[in-house]
Every structure is written in structure tokens, then in C-alpha cells.
Design brief:
It is a single chain. Helix content is 30%, strand content 11%. α5 packs across α10. The chain starts with 28 loop residues before the first strand and ends in a 13-residue tail after the last helix. Pfam families: Rhodanese.
């Protein structure tokens, strides 16, 4: 079967399939026990707290109430995304801006980065994806996040960490991305997954963007189905089964979008764990509906 390339950065082909962690040099997840061992051994690493809430108190408030020892808070809206606009609510930041934010957080190319959020890795996955896109090879997401850490009885602190500025150099284009045209083409020639809740996909409600519905041809795969009740990712085998039922396998080109490119990064991480390479439509639905000429579908596909 001829595979159709619809990614916008043609110099960065989809990574080869073949198992979890194929987009990086390390497995994309780390368990609480493994992170605890690294910290006890004083292994050099950068720990990023990216707790973030679409609606509710800012993540910095949660950070100030308690965080993992040595963790540095990064703001998803300010540090991981560019200003909202025609490119969507969470577009890619300028390379220089992302580089500066990561250096302020202590990120260096030769040092492992571990990212966590509250529990389900929704925000952490966007940081994982962004660092990989901009060229960092050693990034891991704490599976289960802050909740898993505290439930295991591990120490938290309110102390501000000492931060040694990093030397990370942003080199964009290391992971495939889609624009609106690419997403539309992929919905017909491959598999385009909509990572939002089913009611938003069907157009029954839209709490954030001005238009409800989905990209014609997209298939609904809410990110809530990627994790268990504890917020941890499902085993790779179950993820492969889930995506296969949606037609997404490593035999086809696959992409994902959501409302603004945050939860879709979670979908990319879950696909990666399942051994399925995929491209991210960063602008997502907020970019799609910014152009009134783009068609909108409602109901079930």
C-alpha cells in the first residue's frame, strides 16, 4: 500500500515503528519508583512541574503548595506555547522563546528531563512532545504524575529549587507536524484522530472554541481512553488494540488533533507507546475554525 505523506516538515519523516519510545533515545515514561531511585542517587536531571488547568486555579498555585524536590515550575501557556492567535490557542512558540524558557528552567542537551503534571500526563505530554520537537533526545514523563508520587508516600516540598541555567539549543522540526491542509488530507488518505471528548467531537457542546464539530473524516479517540482510573497509561498492548479498532496502525499515516494541541500531544505519546508513529496538528480545532472556509462535520463519523 502506498503511504501518503502529509506532514508539513518533510525533512522530519515519521519515526520508524517498532515499539515504545521510538521517537526518542529513552523510553518516554518513567515510573515513580525509578524516579525516586534516580533522585536518591543524585543523578543529574532536570525535573519540570507543568501542572496546568484549562479551567480552575493556575498551576503555579498547586506548585507553591507542594512539588517534587528540585522540580522547577514551567507555565504551559507562557513557556511551552506561543501567544494565541490565528494559529490556534496554543501554537508552537518561536524557537528562541522556547529555548530561553527551557534554559531558565535548567534544561541542557546532555541532561535527562523528567516532566510531570497532576496525574494523567495531559500537560506533561505537550512538554515531552515540544522538547522532542525542538531537539532534546532524553525526555520522560512521570507516569501517574504528582498524584502517583504522593500516593507512594514520597516527599514533597514547598522550597524553591536552585536553578543552574541550561544550555539547551532549540532545533525545530525533529517531529512531524500537520497544518490545516495536511490534517484535511490525512483524514482522507490515512487516519486522523480527534482527541477531544465525544460530545465536543459530535458538536453537541463546545465550551472553548466558537464553532462546534470536527474535521470531516476524523475519528474520535478521547485521551481519557489512553489511561486508567489512576491516571497511568494503559499497557502498550491495550493501546495497540484501542487504536487498531479506530483503524490506526503502523501501516498507515496517522495524525492527531484536539482543541488547541495539548491533549493531542497526549494522543501522540499514547500512539508512540503503542509503536505507532504519528504527526501532531498543533493548531488543532482552534486553528481549523479560525478559517470560515474549512468544512465542519457534526455527529458520529
Amino acid at each position: 500500500m502506498r503511504r501518503v505523506r502529509v506532514v508539513t516538515n518533510q525533512n522530519s519523516p515519521l519515526p520508524n515503528p517498532g515499539g515504545a519510545g521510538q521517537t526518542g533515545d529513552v523510553h518516554p515514561l518513567i515510573e515513580v519508583s525509578a524516579l525516586d531511585r534516580l533522585l536518591r542517587r543524585q543523578t543529574p536531571l532536570v525535573l519540570l512541574d507543568v501542572r496546568w488547568h484549562l479551567a480552575g486555579p493556575p498551576g503555579i498555585e498547586s506548585y507553591r503548595k507542594g512539588h517534587l524536590p528540585g522540580a522547577v515550575f514551567v507555565d504551559l501557556d507562557r513557556d511551552i506555547a506561543g501567544p494565541p492567535g490565528p494559529g490556534g490557542r496554543h501554537p508552537l512558540p518561536a524557537s528562541g522563546d522556547f529555548e530561553a524558557a527551557m534554559r531558565r528552567a535548567g534544561v541542557s542537551a546532555d541532561r535527562l528531563v523528567v516532566v510531570y503534571d497532576d496525574a494523567d500526563s495531559t500537560a506533561a505530554a505537550r512538554v515531552w512532545w515540544s522538547l522532542r520537537y525542538f531537539g532534546h533526545d532524553r525526555v520522560r514523563v512521570l507516569d501517574g504524575g504528582y498524584r502517583a508520587w504522593t500516593e507512594a508516600g514520597h516527599q514533597v516540598t514547598t522550597a524553591d529549587p536552585e536553578i543552574k541555567p541550561g544550555d539547551f539549543i532549540a532545533a525545530p522540526g525533529r517531529l512531524p507536524v500537520l497544518d490545516a491542509d495536511g490534517a484535511a488530507a490525512l483524514a482522507g488518505a490515512g487516519v486522523l484522530l480527534d482527541a477531544r471528548a465525544a460530545e465536543r467531537y459530535r458538536g453537541e457542546q463546545e465550551p472553548v472554541d466558537p464553532v462546534a464539530g470536527h474535521i470531516p473524516g476524523a475519528r474520535n479517540a478521547p485521551t481519557s481512553g489512553n489511561v486508567g482510573v489512576d491516571g497511568r497509561f494503559l499497557p502498550p498492548g491495550l493501546l495497540r488494540e484501542r487504536f487498531a479498532q479506530l483503524g490506526a496502525t503502523d501501516a498507515l499515516d496517522v495524525g492527531a488533533y484536539c482543541g488547541s494541541g495539548v491533549t493531542a500531544a497526549h494522543e501522540i505519546l499514547a500512539l508512540n507507546l503503542a509503536g505507532i508513529p504519528a504527526a501532531l496538528y498543533v493548531g488543532s480545532w482552534s486553528d481549523w475554525v479560525a478559517d470560515p472556509s474549512h468544512p465542519v462535520a457534526i455527529g458520529d463519523a
